[in-house]
Amino acid sequence: MEPIYVTGHRNPDTDSIVSAMAYAQLRTALGDPDYVAARLGRISDETQLVLDRFGFEPPALIHDLRTQVSDLNYDKPPALNKAATVDRAWQLLHRDENTVALPVVEDDGTLFGMLSTNTIAAQDMKSVLHPVIEDIPVFNLVSALEGSIVLDAEAPTNSVSGRVTIALPANGEEAINLSADTVLVCGNQPDVILDALKAKVPCVVVCQAAVPEEAREMPCASLVISTPQEPYRAARMIFQSVPVWRVCRTTELCPARLTDYVDDVRQMAQDNKHRAFPVVDDDNRVVGMLSRIHLLKPRRKRVVLVDHNEVSQSVPGLEQAEILEIIDHHRLADVQTGNPIYMRNEPVGSTATIIAGMFMERGLMPTARMAGLITCAIISDTLMFKSPTCTPRDRHMAERMASIAHESLDDLGQMIFSASTSDDKSPDDILFQDYKEFMISGHTLGVGQVVTLDSARVLKRQKAFLEAMQKRMDERKYDMMLFLVTDMLLEGSELLFLGSPDVIAQAFNVRPKDNRAFLPGILSRKKQVIPSLSVFWG
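RESULT FIELD:
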């Protein structure tokens, strides 16, 4: 089965990463191994510290959920080696009436060309007008004729060339023109066979007859093949022994790679007249064939959203994916689904609290290591239980998880809140490690937040932060940009901002100065900052 991605939001924080990992572990424990934790952005230093503490690797990074060629139920017909005969290709093409073309590959499986029924038919008509073969491998010839070599030249050759001539008694054997470039097809005609050998024709094909004993005893410069086919069929099969590399199409192959997006492949199909396209992997090895019908109803990727339900914060291409579940603790936003889904949205301080509760509801206990991760996620998202979003349930669940993990809440809190503002991190790293974009009543803004135990030390770099904010604001054309430096000891946030000072003054009832203001009691971006701006802008 294809994986079901469990993913948090872009610019993921610790709660987002841990919630995805915990829910994937829960579903695996319940017998659903297809659930795989994923992330949409880089791991913050805080989250990496937590993962390292409990011995976990970060979830896999995904960039897009748009439907790709790998998601399609494309055909997997056999690929033809370029040395195979046209006869073999024709048999394979008619094994399935829906197969209109076959890929032709090199010895290592990489794409060489495409062979269709139309190409073979064109080659066959050409042979009627110009019945000449050039350097046909002997093994190909014997295979196509379903025959055997009964006489070989004293100096054996590996290929046959010449003009194909059919000699039948009704034609008058005396009219046959034998020369050094004649490939003779005959029946039970001993005299014609002897004459052909004396003329040193390159090849004699004897149909449904034995080679005369006299021919076996004379010096031979010709290849003699015996076949059970009647002469006219044998003549046609000679032309079908041509290697496919000589007749297949090698230009405008339009391969579709497994990683290509279906939207792009659909456009390619519209721009080209071909009915089928080869599917190749990253090494250009052929893995299947794609026709236009496969593009009509592609199989969509499946995803579970945790810690968000807003399109702008989710993975690109979400509209092409099938959302199976949403587990969140934020306001309801704009994610839409085509079918009813399981949705769990609870007013708690951390999504990890909800998922820990789901373990309990199903009678499962997370491992000690996972319990440690969940504890850290709750501490981080509730700001050590001081955030206005925190509930008694968050604290109770964190205490229970810490007990399972044999960890101290205070020790974990000290570790978490000292990780995000170290002096060796660049302003960009600090500013964007927990960052979200919002649209409020037509106003676009970006809001970053960092939690620390020493805001004064962080704000010594105020100028650098404002420069980084101005650059992002110019790039994204924001109306406003905010950066919250939330101080756990002061129980408030220092706010750096770009945009209208009047908006800040009226929305938060403060007196900003030099793009900065202290917001006492403001700890939560979600429950305090965004609602205050929403009320102000109506």
